[in-house]
Amino acid sequence: MKHIFNKGKDASKPTLLMLHGTGGNELDLLPLAGMIDDEASVLSVRGNVLENGMPRFFRRLAEGVFDEEDLVFRTKELNDFLNEAAEKYNFQRDNVIAIGYSNGANIAASLLFHYKNALKGAILHHPMVPRKGIELPDLTGTPVFIAAGTNDPICSPMESAELQKLLDDAGANVELHWENRGHQLTQEEVQAAAIWYRKL
Ligand code: MLT
């Protein structure tokens, strides 16, 4: 997968896996990584799917309607890529924290839904429930921060609460942060994520 790897000052820190929103690329979230932890290594990845020229991490059939087969395939592809990248760049595979926005948050949530040890933790900005009706792996103790908008037209507050419950029921420690805004990524929620991260 097309990506950028920036080695951090402190190898004991998690590697931050940055996952952009629809139409973004691997450059978009680099400033965000610095706001969360400026000493951590950063692996920022570009989604392999194109929708009318816009990069994404998996196909969708319509707004909010995911192509499940492609989602499962792309989730495995990203997990395999993380395994390869850990060897190539010599970072600890079991110490990766994903930070995703929108479509990137959805593929990060999908990694949690499908693989027990894909992520050490995750910061999900405006995620949806990636897939319904499956049993989640045991996520005991996995820290997850969700930022959601009370007026998000793409992800309803009900869906954010449903995602929190599904992850909670699998054993994850979920913090759900609300902004009285829509789908946009706000400074305030990034600051809240940084405070959450520092307490890990
Ligand atoms: C998705 O397709 O992943 C969600 O609708 C969010 C987005 O617009 O990317």
Automatic annotation (TrEMBL):
Residues 77-187 form the Dienelactone hydrolase domain. Pfam families: DLH. One of its GO terms (molecular function) is hydrolase activity. InterPro entries: AB_hydrolase_fold, Dienelactn_hydro. This is Carboxylesterase. It comes from Sutcliffiella cohnii. The lineage of its organism: Bacteria, Bacillati, Bacillota, Bacilli, Bacillales.
